[in-house]
Amino acid sequence: MTDAYRTVTGRAEARFEVSGSEFIGYISPAETVAEAEAFIDDIEDRHPDATHNVPAYRVPAGAASSAVPGGGNVMLREYQSDDGEPTGSSGKPALNVLVQQDVRNVVAVVTRYYGGTNLGVGGLARAYSRAVKEALDAAGIVEEIPHERFTATVDYDDSGDVRGILESTGVEFEADYDQRVSFSVRVPIDDADALRDRLRSATSGRVEIE
User: Fold this and answer.
1) Which Gene Ontology BP annotations are present (predicted)?
2) Do 182 and 125 belong together in one domain?
């Protein structure tokens, strides 16, 4: 059994003011560095006029897979940036909240609109920490087990059998009906090999799995 971990239930935000500056903390689940970076870009696009958009995340450095030694226990990548704030005043305090709360597969961005009063390094650290903490509280924390993703592609004749198996096991999937049918599957690592075997058996090996 691969180890469970703590993460957020979904996206959330929290807002407050400190000495005229507005802080908005955003939080989101993210399973890859690419997902985390995309969320950061989304917040920056939403607030192009903000004084600062400070990011922090803790996500797997690589894709989780049953083929990885130790199951899904891939190394975590921890990242933060002060985005122009004084060194150590914002990004590190934001990341520290994620570490102290022992959450992973998560990305945070704190947006600040400057209100005319300098808060000092200590005041900034408290504000950025508070923004992440309150966003975490708003999102809620759950225990999750590591998942992996794969794509199963079949001809239309086999698509009904594949879809039936995926629906009966209760895994998350999306189907793309084109010249062939591709199922993008998200499955707990401990169940992935058995599911792939079922799909191969049901299609007499015709399914292409990537």
Assistant:
1) regulation of translational initiation
2) no
